[in-house]
Amino acid sequence: MPTRRARIPATRYPVERFTLDNGLRVVLTPDRSAPVIGVAVVYDVGIRSEPEGRTGFAHLFEHLMFQGSENLEKLAHFRHVQGAGGTFNGSTHLDYTDYYETLPSNALERALFLEADRMRGPRLTEENLRNQVDVVKEEIRVNVLNRPYGGFPWLTLPPVMFDTFPNAHDGYGSFDDLESATVDDAADFFRRYYASGNAVLAVSGDLDVAEAARLIERHFGDVPARPAPDRPDFAEPELTAERRSSYTDQLAPLPAVASAWRVPDPIDDFTAYLPYVVLAEVLTDGDASRLVGRLVHTDRAVTSVGGYLGFMGDPFDVRDPTALLLQAHLPPGGDVDKVLRTVDEELDRLATDGLTDGELARTQARMATHLLRDTDAVLGRALRMAVLEQQRTDPGLLGELPRLVGEVTDDQVRAAATTLRSERRASVEVIPGGAR
Amino acid sequence: MSVRALPPLGPTRRLKLPRQAERTLRNGLTVIVVRRPAVPLVELRLWMPFVRAHLARGHLLAQTMLSGTETMSSVQIAAELQRIGGGLSAGLDPDRLMLSGTSLATGLDRLLEILAEVLTGASYPAEWVDIERDRLVDGIQVARSQPAHLARTALLRRIYGRHPYAVQTPEPEQVRAVRPGALRTLHAQRVRPAGAVLVLVGDVRPERALDAAEKALDGWDGDGYPAELPPAPPLVPGPLQLFDRPGSVQSSLRLALPAVPRTHPDHAALQLANLVFGGYFSSRWVENIREDKGYTYGPHSLVEHSVAGSLLVASAEVATEVTAPALLETSYELGRLATVPPTSEELEQARQYALGTLQLGVSTQTGLASLVSAYAGNGLRLDFLAEHAARLARASAEDVAEAAARYLAPTRAVTVVLGDAERIASSLSTLSPVETAPVPS
């Protein structure tokens, strides 16, 4: 069949950017196709910034931002968002923490009020802190301790690959560290990182730009100005020798393995970075991809294999250092060494022979669909644009990504594959302790 | 410091439904197209009635349906779908077989062609069935190591007894016994257009998309298969069933309560009562056992609809040491709502949430596709959303109090707990008769 290349559609979301006098950066992206809005506030602090002895603190602090603020009692935030017909959440990442709501558009001013109020200051009390330490411990039990493959590989691979505390430590935190956290720690953390100059507000959806800008000035204009703190350098040298580690998961019935290779700086060297994002999909997107074909169907060496950029699956919202990851689940008695050798072989083959006719184009078309799908919901647009503004001062990049992905060439993907050598690889293996 | 007042809400936006069109093809397939052009994609959902199918064969059929046809290999199907930025996947529950997919809007015709190719020509190649059979067995084994799956399995068995809903995951041995021939037979019998509903949502012109679907799927043939589900049995309260999971650091609480289908006159009031109890974050139950007591992270309660009946299920994973106290608070909150009407503030908040999240739900292609498909599978159309919104807006405090008394009374609950029996059995038995049962295999 001849190679037909699906035209990758261009999407151009309108973007308005401005900065308030207190340093808060604002992104507006109107879309009046449905009467709903997305509101996102992103602070430039994440897991990598938490102090030693306080693992899990960035996430614990995220919980404290929902416990009341200057004009709001505990529980008020939830009730005001949901009582306006909206939903909310927050999440803590390696380099940032986000807070967001999506609501019917008649609640725009209310959402701005709620976010501004906690930007002025959360109510940090001993009682709320103890309550949320308990809640976070249950969150960790649900997601890590009481289930098979908990934290695999996002919590268990970084300590193999990295040597410094910011990059290597457990971002969910140890129970000891969580229990040692104090209200003073929280107040310090807020003062240092939750500064107006360290935040971005993005609003998307059914809004009028002039009206929204006026409401934003009204509610955020008098948030006290505080500058962004200096951002530390989290750089680490590249690996020069392969690293391997393993652990027994008492609940896991089957073996699993994950590997990671460092990739170029996603912010400063985006052109060199982007081919790796494409490479991960060439290797693992669906039955027509290289590693699924070889490992799942030809060799039957794994039951599933996936590839992605960033330990939290965050190709476009993480800074250096980061990695390309592959993870695979194996059948009973599966041979991890053999799987890793086969991955090497397939990477060699790609590096040597290049891609087949149409292989890259079809992968890029599918990536375009994924990128577009993520931005259909107005909230997805607000969240991604807020982070792109924060890390790259370029929220409009969101609309460019499908095209930029589509411009990556065969040679670039091939060159990227060439760098995924075993001596640059860090791997972690799950040994099943729960086979019945 | 001056107190700042919460800004009022602006005028409520009327629920506006997107443009849609529907056609029933000669072969009995219903096609519904909904236009939402915000991104240049199209979402596809094909609901095929699949009640009372052999469980293991059904699951393996879903797992291998896209593994090849007379003219295309599995890899070709996948590559051709990728070429239009697309993908397809199959999934099964006791009501239906569902094919779900997406592609660039420009790829719709090709997506439909590939869909038709699979529907009329899936060949279940022996080699691929072999591979997928092992993967399915491994997947079942992994699912069985997850507490949420085990708790769900235990609850379904307890509630449904001999009804087909009682067991929804096949035994590995049953899967191992399935041969490709059985899959081809099952496909020929059950993958039929009569009674099926195809939903397309996205950046498409409805009439043009109907034509495209008709052209592509006209050759898909065969009568429907005469199978019906008996109505789900009523809940029969009894002793708390405790399933032992030694060493578990949390206990999984599951409470099932009666519920009614979407079209029942009590449904809107029940939905509001459920919200006030535990159906969203700002509910009594969540504020109690999470925000006050810190027993749990994500408790939630949900009205679930299936073809043969509806159910309200409250779920929480709680720390082992507070299992009984968490259950006590749960019964307390159910009982309080069943006996003391919610305040008007609580009710209005729940109502706004219910109405607002309807707006949010239909503001994306995927949200619309899932809703339209779930509605259509139960004989409803998107217009029902407006009717439902009107019922939510109308439900009075008395309606909600009555629904709470009728459906949320703790005496009506069926309760199962999965956890470390040695550590929780005796304290649970202070609250309720307890019957210890082996973990479902």
UniProtKB/TrEMBL annotation, chain A:
Belongs to the peptidase M16 family. One of its GO terms (molecular function) is metallopeptidase activity. This is Insulinase family protein. Residues 181-366 form the Peptidase M16 C-terminal domain. It comes from Micromonospora radicis. Signal peptide: none annotated. Keywords: Hydrolase, Metalloprotease, Protease, Zinc. Residues 26-142 form the Peptidase M16 N-terminal domain. One of its GO terms (biological process) is proteolysis. SUPFAM superfamilies: LuxS/MPP-like metallohydrolase. It holds the Pfam family Peptidase_M16_C. It comes from the Bacteria. The keyword Secreted does not apply.
From TrEMBL, chain B:
InterPro entries: Metalloenz_LuxS/M16 (IPR011249), MPP/UQCRC_Complex (IPR050361), Pept_M16_N (IPR011765), Peptidase_M16_C (IPR007863). Coiled coil: none annotated. One of its GO terms (molecular function) is metal ion binding. Signal peptide: none annotated. It holds the Pfam family Peptidase_M16. Residues 59-169 form the Peptidase M16 N-terminal domain. Residues 182-352 form the Peptidase M16 C-terminal domain. It comes from the Bacteria. This is Insulinase family protein.
